[in-house]
Design goal:
Layout lengths: L11 E5 L12 H9 L3 H12 L6 H11 L6 H16 L7 H10 L3 E6 L12 H6 L2 E4 H4 L6 H11 L6 E5 L2 H10 L3 E5 L15 E3 L5 H4 L16
Parallel strand pairs: 1-2, 1-4, 2-3, 4-5, 5-6
Helix pairs in contact: 1-2, 1-4, 3-4
Length: 236
């Protein structure tokens, strides 16, 4: 793929967080919650998607809500512990080794840099982690926008805050459904991050490039971002 310049009209790149920029835990928070509650991962995802990822909430409040849903008050303590650990990890995210150099290279070329994540409301840090402040122009949390990927409203929040049109945005993420399909549906350019070399042709569109490392991304973008102005104050 080196030498093949793509996305000539792109002015900003938006990244997924967990699995794309940030190393995830071996078992995601939703999976840990499922284990504590004794429910399936699919049930836990559906439960979290209804509200826990769409509003800000403390770990203690969410633990009480989850325990109440199943009439299991004895689980408030274990659930709080899981959610508090997730909050602490979010405050000190562990980036993949290829992230700082790749994003620094894109910033030098004038690209706006954002991130968008379906985060539990209890995991949103009160202050943006230093790593994000240095590398990104803004992070859009579903608990603040009220929309989760792949919903169009999640991507619209980035468009509105940045003042950019869909064709000026590239979304880079590791989830085929939430990231790639969601971005394609609203007219964004897309790249799928497949760090584990997944077998099979999972990319849903020929226009979506498959990356095994973010080191490749600067090689595929123009030497300068397309001309224009990006909103200077972006909050998510």
């Amino acid at each position: 793929m080196s030498g093949r310049v793509m996305w000539a009209g792109v002015r900003a790149v938006c990244f997924d967080l967990g699995g794309t920029l940030v190393r995830p835990e071996p078992v995601a928070t939703t999976g840990q919650v499922a284990e504590v509650l004794g429910i399936s991962l699919e049930e836990a995802r559906a439960l979290m998607g209804k509200g826990a990822k769409r509003r800000l909430v403390t770990a203690q409040e969410l633990a009480h809500e989850l325990a109440a849903c199943f009439g299991r008050p004895a689980l408030i303590g274990p659930l709080t512990e899981v959610l508090e650990r997730a909050r602490r990890r979010a405050e000190d995210p562990q980036l993949y080794p290829d992230v700082p150099d790749a994003l620094a290279a894109l910033r030098k070329r004038g690209f706006g840099l954002f991130a968008m994540t379906n985060a539990l409301g209890s995991s949103v840090p009160e202050q943006e982690p230093e790593a994000f402040r240095e590398l990104l122009d803004g992070v859009f949390y579903s608990a603040r926008t009220g929309a989760i990927k792949p919903e169009p409203e999640a991507f619209a929040a980035v468009e509105h805050a940045s003042g950019l049109r869909p064709q000026e945005l590239l979304h880079v993420g590791d989830s085929v459904n939430a990231d790639v399909c969601g971005a394609l549906a609203v007219g964004w350019h897309t790249a799928w991050v497949d760090r584990f070399h997944t077998a099979g042709p999972l990319v849903p569109a020929a226009s979506t490039l498959r990356l095994h490392s973010l080191n490749t991304l600067p090689l595929l973008l123009p030497t300068r971002a397309a001309a224009g102005t990006i909103a200077s104050e972006v909050t998510g």
